[in-house]
Predict the structure.
Amino acid sequence: MSRLIQLDARLSLAYDLYDPCDLAADIGTDHAHLPAALLQRGRCQHMILTDLSESALKNARETVIRCRLSDRTDLRAGNGLQPLEETCGMISITGMGGRTVHDILLEGAEKLKGASLVLSAHTDLPLIREAVCRIGYHLDREEPCFCAGRYYLVLRARPGVCSLTPRELRLGGPLFESQSSQLIPYLTRRREVLQDKLRGLVSADKPEESLIAQVRDDIAFYDGMIGKGKES
Ligand SMILES: C[S@@+](CC[C@H](N)C(=O)[O-])C[C@H]1O[C@@H](n2cnc3c(N)ncnc32)[C@H](O)[C@@H]1O
């Protein structure tokens, strides 16, 4: 019997940010849980699943066979967006470091062909925001979640002019419009991280005054947002 894929909180959020489409692609798919769920629940009709690693593609193949999705999937080995030729409605890149997602977007920008993007990374979110702006996209959603003991953001980007300020590039743009119950816990955790960073900067042999001022300013900004969230 074919198995219904259950998604964890991070991939559920990625699923929720997907628009219905005829053809989508999941880059760095590994276990292929997100595309399997998108196909099983009918949000996407066909999907291209890619990965750099042959052993990851083997995992994807196993999921596809177990879920009886072979005739609706196309598995391809390759770096980033390079294996894509077709025009996709949506493309997801999740579960990698922010630097890798940044490089994939910049190196493969011509392969996007107007697709909307669902992006997530466990590090270096500002690099993803920067890459999104550099390829002529803008972010329309940034949603937090808590999964397996840590916070993640899942971002959605669409073609269009990016108007993020330097602080929005660092901390988030549409994030602050999120209605998620995880927003305040996420901001509280990010504030703690910045507070730790500030302690390190202040006690350095040669304190970098402009960076210290920026971190203080960002902490104050988080305080304002956390306070506003608690009032509402
Ligand atoms: C941790 S898994 C993430 C699986 C799934 N996307 C998720 O979010 O749970 C990361 C996958 O990205 C693949 N990967 C890393 N760099 C890549 C690149 N430049 N192009 C394609 N795949 C890549 C790895 O081989 C690995 O299978």
